[in-house]
Design goal:
By secondary structure, this protein is of the alpha/beta class. Helix content is 44%, strand content 15%. The chain has 3 domains: 5-139, NusB-like (N-utilizing Substance Protein B Homolog, Chain A, Orthogonal Bundle); 169-225, Sun protein, domain 3 (Alpha-Beta Plaits, 2-Layer Sandwich), CATH 3.30.70; 237-429, Rossmann fold, CATH 3.40.50.150. It is globular, with a radius of gyration of 23 Å.
Length: 430
């Protein structure tokens, strides 16, 4: 294992791209004085990877052999540092070349040095040259950009641009503990700059991200980290005292805990998830927010649960498994560990989940269908076909205060009011 941040970034990126590892999980295991730089190099290089690869390939006299993928990624790390960071050019070049030693690739010193220095000399011409390549221009896989253009012909460029931007740090204030304004006041007393979220009434936006444990009231459950878009769910469910709630795909628990903050007098709450590791995070969040004794946490997928339980519910939240195409700005590896053909499979899974939980909904009850996707195949198409097949399902119109109206439901596109991409549709059982 290398402690050189540029070498280590190349190694981690190789694991993301070739093994399908999640960058967040890999970086969580890293520590040391250079961990902040390592994080920046990993996230930045992956965010712009298709563009950086196009620049690299334009500067190479012949393609690198497949077994030299590590050198290819190190070149992208170096190009990212030259193009997007404020590192002095000579320092960035020298440090990138030095990273070849811990990678045991010293044969490539001359190559790496030449490519990076040639970029500095030919930058304008190279960037102009790659602009005609859709993948390089948008920094997204070609199929992804084309699918967005098909679904959102007038918005796809802005969606792609938002995906490549850094996401703001958003906190959801636990209003069972204190008001949003009181939380803002506490933060301002510590010289933290933040503003009230323009749409999500429980949320605040930090001007500069901070480690959560250094913020006021973390251990006391004053807030949770959650974007404004998912924080709308608890309010859309129209919760009231005495109701039963099923959160059908609950981990890591952001929406489950928010529902209890919005309505602490729910009669019962069941939270399901098929991932044991994610359920552990759910239980940790429940404990920190002091809701541990109010939720029945079950390791199960909602289809199996529906086949075996005799319980029914007044409210069901189905945040369905999806491509996560609306949260690329937060999880840049999503662009590279999704395949086009998998979207249809996900849509089928979403429909199966919706069919299953619908059987558990009481007459007069509400089911909120949600995804963090922007692909219509996973959103409005699923709801349209479901409504056509279920006479007892009727759409409830959602407030016009967020997103944009679809044939059914409402879609938030990445960057709308500073939020992640999210889709909601609310159904009542007649």
């Amino acid at each position: 294992m290398s402690h050189n941040p540029r070498a280590r970034a190349s190694q981690l990126l190789l694991r993301v791209l070739e093994e399908g590892k999640l960058l967040d999980e890999l970086l969580a295991k890293e520590s040391g004085d250079e961990s902040a730089l390592l994080r920046e190099l990993c996230y930045g290089t992956l965010r712009w990877l298709p563009r950086l690869e196009a620049v690299r390939d334009a500067l190479l006299s012949k393609p690198l052999r497949s077994k030299e993928a590590l050198v290819g990624l190190l070149l992208c790390v170096g190009l990212y540092e030259l193009e997007y960071l404020q590192t002095k050019p000579y320092a960035a070049v020298n440090e990138t070349v030095s990273a070849l030693k811990p990678l045991k690739k010293t044969w490539a010193k001359g190559l790496v040095n030449a490519v990076l220095r040639n970029f500095l000399r030919e930058r304008e011409a190279i960037l102009t040259q790659i602009e005609s390549q859709l993948e390089a221009r948008t920094a997204h896989p070609i199929w992804w950009a084309k699918k967005l253009k098909q679904d959102w012909p007038e918005d796809f460029e802005s969606i792609l641009s938002a995906n490549n931007a850094r996401a703001p740090m958003v906190l959801r204030v636990n209003q069972q503990k204190l008001s949003r304004q009181d939380f803002i006041n506490h933060c301002q007393q510590q010289s933290l700059a933040l503003t009230a979220h323009p749409i999500a009434t429980d949320c605040v936006v930090l001007e500069i991200p901070h480690p959560v444990m250094t913020l006021p009231g973390y251990d006391d459950g004053w807030f949770s980290v959650q974007d404004g878009a998912p924080s709308l769910a608890a309010h859309l469910l129209q919760l009231a005292p005495g109701q039963s709630l099923l959160d059908a795909c609950a981990a890591p628990g952001g929406k489950t805990t928010h529902c209890l903050e919005v309505e602490p007098q729910l009669e019962s709450v069941v939270a399901l998830d098929s991932s044991e590791s994610r359920l552990k995070r759910l239980q940790e969040n429940l404990q920190r927010l002091q809701f541990g004794d109010k939720v029945d946490v079950l390791h199960a997928n909602c289809v199996d649960f529906a086949e075996t339980t005799d319980k029914t519910f007044d409210r069901i939240l189905l945040d369905a498994p999806c491509s996560a195409s609306g949260i690329v700005r937060r999880h840049v590896d999503i662009k590279f560990n999704r395949e086009e053909h998998a979207i249809a499979d996900l849509a089928q899974t979403q429909r199966c989940c919706l069919e299953a939980v619908w059987e558990l909904l009481n007459e007069g009850g509400l089911c909120l269908y949600a995804t963090c996707s922007v692909f219509k195949e996973e959103n409005v198409n699923v709801i349209t076909s479901f409504l056509a097949d279920h006479e007892d399902a009727v759409e409830v119109l959602l407030p016009e205060s967020f997103g944009r109206a679809e044939v059914h439901g409402r879609q938030i596109l990445p960057g709308d009011d500073g939020m992640d991409g999210f889709y909601y549709a609310l159904l009542i059982k007649q």
